[in-house]
Amino acid sequence: xxxxxxxxxxxxxxxxxxxxxxxxxxxxxxxxxxxxxxxxxxxxxxxxxxxxxxxxxxxxxxxxxxxxxxxxxxxxxxxxxxxxxxxxxxxxxxxxxxxxxxxxxxxxxxxxx
Amino acid sequence: xxxxxxxxxxxxxxxxxxxxxxxxxxxxxxxxxxxxxxxxxxxxxxxxxxxxxxxxxxxxxxxxxxxxxxxxxxxxxxxxxxxxxxxxxxxxxxxxxxxxxxxxxxxxxxxxxxxx
Lengths: 113, 116
What we know:
The complex is a heterodimer.
Chain A: E1 3-7, E2 10-14, E3 19-26, E4 32-38, E5 44-50, E6 56-58, E7 64-68, E8 73-78, E9 87-94, E10 102-103, E11 107-112
Parallel strand pairs in A: 2-11
Antiparallel strand pairs in A: 1-3, 3-8, 4-5, 4-9, 6-7, 7-8, 9-10, 9-11
Chain B: E1 5-7, E2 10-13, E3 19-24, E4 31-37, E5 44-50, E6 53-56, E7 65-68, E8 75-79, E9 88-95, E10 106-107, E11 111-115
Parallel strand pairs in B: 2-11
Antiparallel strand pairs in B: 1-3, 3-8, 4-5, 4-9, 5-6, 7-8, 9-10, 9-11
């Protein structure tokens, strides 16, 4: 069965430090890949998406992610964390146009002052 | 452009009661999804509509959950009767049709259901 794994349910970084959130998927077929962010009591907001164009994808709020087919990974990074980045982050994978997304279990990011 | 609207935002019911959630997708979006997000987990698809037809309802507990999308616009998700394990956030999302959509889905704020 297709699955998405986010390593680490909780990540804590200091303000200004590098943010790295990990995502791996299980499939031999290249998928569409997404990162969503969820702030408390809000819906999911798209950060960025990979759609088989450039493997390094830039998103909103300074985030970027790199698709590595050989590692079946799509890790999310940000060079310098800001307090406002504290939220839950979800990696999601889709394989068909218009089809469902399969989400990872989420990683809660905390940013310490 | 208005986003995906959902109501109510919060609902508390007793087990075995019924409850209904409403979703109005972004105007012109052909595809509508209902997800269930249990605390500490990622969203899980319950049902997907393309216009007013069901595309995927393989993970919908059909003995107690039902959903409809009349006229291909807004949608209602119902639970009857509710169980304790139905406590979750119910997210509605919509997506435009066409080859450029790449499955990007736009999410509403969700309805938080608590079953006591």
